[in-house]
Amino acid sequence: MSNKKTPPPPTLPPSFTVSDNLCLFHKGDLSEDIYTCPKCKTIYCLKCAIKAQTDRKSCVKCKQIVLL
Ligand SMILES: [Zn+2]
Ligand SMILES: [Zn+2]
Predict the structure, then answer these.
(1) Rounded Cα–Cα distance for residues 37 and 66 (Å)
(2) Which of 25, 27, 57, 64 has the fewest CB atoms within 10 Å of its CB?
């Protein structure tokens, strides 16, 4: 008798969920005003982009400097 039970599917941590409406600078929902990276087209909040420019941070994905 083989009555195998299928194991429950592994639960992925929520951080693996990729959302198009996620700002990678503050890791939250995008606001209405957005900034698009000219190189990789990743979108960020405009306010985060302004802050990133002030802090001399670059794009999380392609390391392109934030230029507004
Ligand atoms: Zn980029
Ligand atoms: Zn943001």
Answers:
(1) 7
(2) 27
